[in-house]
Amino acid sequence: MKESLWSLFSAGIFLFVMIFNHFKQLEKFQGENENPKFHGYKGRINIRQAPVNPTNVSEKFVSAIVDATGVDKILDYNDPTTPIGAFTQWQLYQKPYGQREGSSTAFLSPDILTPDGLGENERKLRVFYYSTVLRILFEGRRAVGVELLKEGKMLKVYARKKVIISAGINSPQLLMFSGIGPVRELQQAGIPIVFNNPNVGKNVTNHTLNTAIFSMNQRDMADLQGDPFALYTGGAFLPHPFSRMNGRRSVQLIGTVSEGNLIIVVIFLQPRSRGTIRIQNNDPLKIVLADEGFLDNPFDMETIKAIFRMYIKPMAMKLSTIDSAYQLLNPTIDTIDNDEALEEYIKENFGHNHHQQGFLRMAPFSRGGVVDNQGRVHGVDHLIVADASIIPFSVDGNTSAAAYLIGYTVAKNLMQEE
Ligand SMILES: Cc1cc2nc3c(=O)[nH]c(=O)nc-3n(C[C@H](O)[C@H](O)[C@H](O)COP(=O)(O)OP(=O)(O)OC[C@H]3O[C@@H](n4cnc5c(N)ncnc54)[C@H](O)[C@@H]3O)c2cc1C
């Protein structure tokens, strides 16, 4: 690897630049469905298709979805030719024996990083532990480094080339404390303006989450123990209930078993509601004010109701004919059939996930953007954002792979610039 020529400082994903070669293949797929066209096998991130043997619950759940919605039963939802369908096995960030895999286990393992935070084998890498970046340092409009708090001490660290921010949900806060954000908000907090961008912290997008609870056949509990790390038992990606032929996935169903019940997690992947992230004052250690704007756009409520009416109810009816021990308990069929009661159920039952994205959106400035198509922050120089905050539209699945891909792409582009 041509070691990085940049001095890079950021909160998280900048490490991807340093370990670029290892990232050429993102994942190491382990599953019965070996699909070399769409999966890597030599990368550092382990993906496990689980459970190894589909459970009875998942077989029944999947049959019911297929019968009720007309989608296919599929084996690999990450094969772009089969994005929609129902499946008995999930693809999980797990090592072969079920341990959780993540960017730190995959990319900051002992062969890459010493316990002191230095790169192994002369890799140009330095990780500051117990450190919180407070702001980006500028000379004029050029980012030159960061100020950070490390174990009670303030440090300034300078970049020879570029500064890359990847603080996830905190990235807007870092920009705002550095003078990039809505002018009024920054002025109120007494923060000197570097670039007035009203789009910073807007457009917060998150998938919605509800549940449907079923009784289940207690004899089906036994084979769940076969793979205790499998997490889920069956699932589906479905099209939008109002536009079922457009081929895009809009709904994610996740089967789980808890306290003797089958719980189907219902996720709407294409919400139109948008939230905001704002700072409270000029204290960089103060948590931001985050409003995810759930259900602000009435289209989202209409869609979630349609998901219950058009997918969950018919699926429940099929499931009970496959095995009468499986009955929809909550919401009841009566609730689903009553618009007002269903709306109330959805609000009361509303859950939270951590798929926040888009609050430093990749788009032209005039169209709500904060970064350009290379992740470069509008209005300033030498500052890049590389995390889920720049995702321009709602990801149609879980979000970490998108965050990894953003880190990879930014790294690749920077390497090509050299
Ligand atoms: C409990 C949980 C479970 C999840 N499960 C899944 C899953 O199974 N599959 C999936 O695809 N996605 C999952 N997600 C979502 C996924 O983790 C996120 O989409 C993804 O991590 C976003 O990546 P990111 O780089 O944008 O931010 P992050 O991963 O949050 O990285 C930001 C990093 O910056 C650090 N940081 C923040 N502020 C500062 C600062 N001021 N100074 C220094 N460091 C700072 C943070 O500590 C963090 O390490 C889950 C999220 C949560 C919270």
From TrEMBL:
The keyword Amino-acid biosynthesis does not apply. SUPFAM superfamilies: FAD-linked reductases, C-terminal domain (SSF54373), FAD/NAD(P)-binding domain (SSF51905). Keywords: FAD, Flavoprotein, Membrane, Transmembrane, Transmembrane helix. The chain crosses the membrane at residues 6-23. Residues 35-208 form the Glucose-methanol-choline oxidoreductase N-terminal domain. It comes from the Bacteria. Its cofactor is FAD. Residues 271-407 form the Glucose-methanol-choline oxidoreductase C-terminal domain. Belongs to the GMC oxidoreductase family. This is GMC family oxidoreductase. It comes from Niallia oryzisoli.
